[in-house]
Structures are given as C-alpha cells and as structure tokens.
Amino acid sequence: MLKKVVITQPLPDKNLKGLVGRCDIAVLSGKQSLSSAQARDKLANCHGLICLLSDAIDHFVLDAMPKLEFVSSVSVGVDHIDVAILTERDIPLGHTPGVLAAATADAAFGLLLAAARRLVEGDRYIREGNWRPDNRWSADFFLGKDVSGTTLGIIGLGAIGQAMARRGAGFDMRLLSWTPSGRKVSGVDSVSLEELLSRSDFVSVHLALTGTTHDFLSADKIATMKPGAVLVNTARGGIVNELALAQALDSGHLYAAGLDVFESEPMAMDSPLLHHPRVVVVPHIGSATALTRAKMVELAVRNAKAGLDGRPMPHCVNPEVYPVFGAG
C-alpha cells in the first residue's frame, strides 16, 4: 500500500510529477484551516506533509497526524512550523534554500528604489488625476532620495543578504553588514549593529524569524537609525516593530520604507503604515517569479521523495533526527 502524502494547497501538476506513482497524494483546497474537521480527516492517515509558509503547522495540527514521517515546506523560513516538536518526534523537516535568493534580492532592491524615488506615490498621483498642465514640472517636483553613492546597511548576510550586496555594489553603494553568524563577505564592511544603523542611508533586513529576532528592530533601535534613512524588509514581518516604524515615518525621522512582509498577514487595513504616502507595500511576493517558485516546489518534492524512501532529505532543517547527525 502506498504511503499517503497530503499537500496543503494546490500546486502545479507538472511540478509534482516526481511523486506520482510513489505515494497516494491528497490535496487540500487551500481555503480551509488545517484545524478544520475536513482537513483533519485527510490528515489523520498522513505519512508525509507538503506545506507552504502560510500554513501554521503547530502542535494541534501535528497531533492530528499520528503516522507522520516527514514534513516538506515550500519555503526557506520555517517559523510557521513547530520545529521543536518535529525534532522531539524524530520527524525530519525539509525546506527550500538557495533557489530564491536572486528573486528576493531583486524584490528588496526594487522596494528600495521605489521607496527612495517615490515611484508608487508618483504612479498614484497620475492615476488620481493630479498631474495637470499647471503643475506639469518644476525644479522641486517629486524630489526623491539618491541611491547611487549612498550607504547600504545589510542586516543578515545569508544568500539573500549577499545577493542584495551585489545589487548595491552595482549602484556604487558603500556596503555595511551585521550578521549573527559573523560571516564576512569581500567588499562588505562588517560593523556593529549600532554603527550600521547610524551610518546607513538604506537598511535592508535579511534575517530569519526566531525567538531572538522577533521585534529585533525595536523602537529603541529604529530611533538610532540615521535620520532620513529608508528601511526595507523582505525577511519576516515580526522582525520589525511596525508601530515604531510607523511613528518614525510620521515624525519624519525616517524618510520611507519598502515592505514585503508583515507581523500579521494579510496586512490589516487599519495598519498605521498604510497612512504614510512613502511606505511601499507588496503582499509577500519576494520569491514570486514563475521560475523561482517552480524551483522551490522541485526542492520540496525532492525532500518529500527522500522522506518517502527513508533517506536523509537533501535540505533538512533538523538533521539531528537522523541516526548519523548532520546526514543529508
């Protein structure tokens, strides 16, 4: 009898062909909560789970899957999953690193440019009928913030942070970095977090969300940022204190922000961040290119195939679950 693999949301069939014939696939609608009765019926006899970052895989969901042997997430970050419980139960968790760095860095730098040069604000200005012959152009019309030749501070120097550094170098930006790992990259000056915040004209966040990085950019840290700076976050929303960010923007301490991620997603329409004209917001689309998403699903399927075969996953978050620590 084939093992059962549940996929929490519909994915393109062509990306799942590696699983066809190897397991019994059940796909949830994507519109129902994993804690719903209908979902729990499908999860009850599940041996493997393929999920997305929008799925909360907590102990309630995991308790509904007594036969679970592996989880494979179509994401790099796994803050939506209770990793400790999986590890305690010797259940490997796969993720999809390495394939979305370029796309996410492109999005981050796009947000940086859009916020600095007021591109969304200008688009809205035209669409609302405000650009007229009497205000066609003037010397101070829609002045923005220079990007080339300024200082870019990168918080987190993983694959995405390094890709962001390469894009900044292409704009002749001075590059500063702070990262928990202490990683050093050629052409990027490693400095203290305090120095990075006080010197950077642009700050781009590229950390994983963990217990230690939640509210990492707190009100106190945002207050130490260089006056007139721009903050970009394409990592996770909980890393930045959104209320403090909104207050810094409203007071004029910060010039603008470009945000792809939020503490609560979807973003609340009464968020104070939406009241500031120089906040550019997009709906968590940092990795949203057709090629990147296909590669992410491909890696997730490879992890799932290894889980089905009882082999170490190629990309495992908790390799300590394997008999030989670090296998895979």
SSE order and pairing:
Blueprint lengths: L3 E4 L16 E4 L9 H7 L4 E5 L6 H5 L6 E5 L8 H6 L4 E2 L6 H16 L2 H9 L23 E5 L3 H12 L3 E5 L10 E2 L2 H7 L2 E4 L13 H5 L5 E5 L8 H10 L2 E6 L19 E3 L8 H20 L19
Parallel strand pairs: 1-2, 1-3, 3-4, 4-5, 6-7, 6-9, 7-8, 9-10, 10-11, 11-12
Helix pairs in contact: 4-6
Description:
- With 328 residues, the chain is an alpha/beta fold.
- It has 2 domains: 4-99 and 290-321, Rossmann fold (3-Layer(aba) Sandwich); 101-281, NAD(P)-binding Rossmann-like Domain (Rossmann fold), CATH 3.40.50.
- Helix content is 30%, strand content 15%.
- It contains 10 helices and 12 strands.
- The chain has helices at residues 37-43, 59-63, 83-88, 101-116, 119-127, 159-170, 193-199, 219-223, 242-251, 290-309; strands at residues 4-7, 24-27, 48-52, 70-74, 93-94, 151-155, 174-178, 189-190, 202-205, 229-233, 254-259, 279-281.
- The strands form 2 sheets. A 7-stranded parallel beta sheet has the order 8-7-6-9-10-11-12, with helices on both faces. A 5-stranded parallel beta sheet has the order 2-1-3-4-5.
- Helix 3 links the parallel strand 4 and strand 5.
Summarize the structure.
With 328 residues, the protein is of the alpha/beta class. Helices cover 30% and strands 15% of the residues.
CATH class descriptor name of the largest domain: Alpha Beta
Question: What average pLDDT do the residues reach?
Answer: 94
Q: What name does CATH use for the topology of the largest domain?
A: Rossmann fold
- How many β-strand stretches? 12
Structural class: alpha/beta
CATH architecture of the largest domain: 3-Layer(aba) Sandwich
Number of helices: 10
Q: Number of domains in the coordinates? A: 2
Contiguous low-pLDDT stretches (5 residues minimum) are none
Topology as a string of helices (H) and strands (E):
EEHEHEHEHHEHEEHEHEHEEH
The CATH superfamily of the largest domain turns out to be: NAD(P)-binding Rossmann-like Domain
Overall spatial form: elongated
What is the first-to-last residue Cα distance?
A: 27 Å
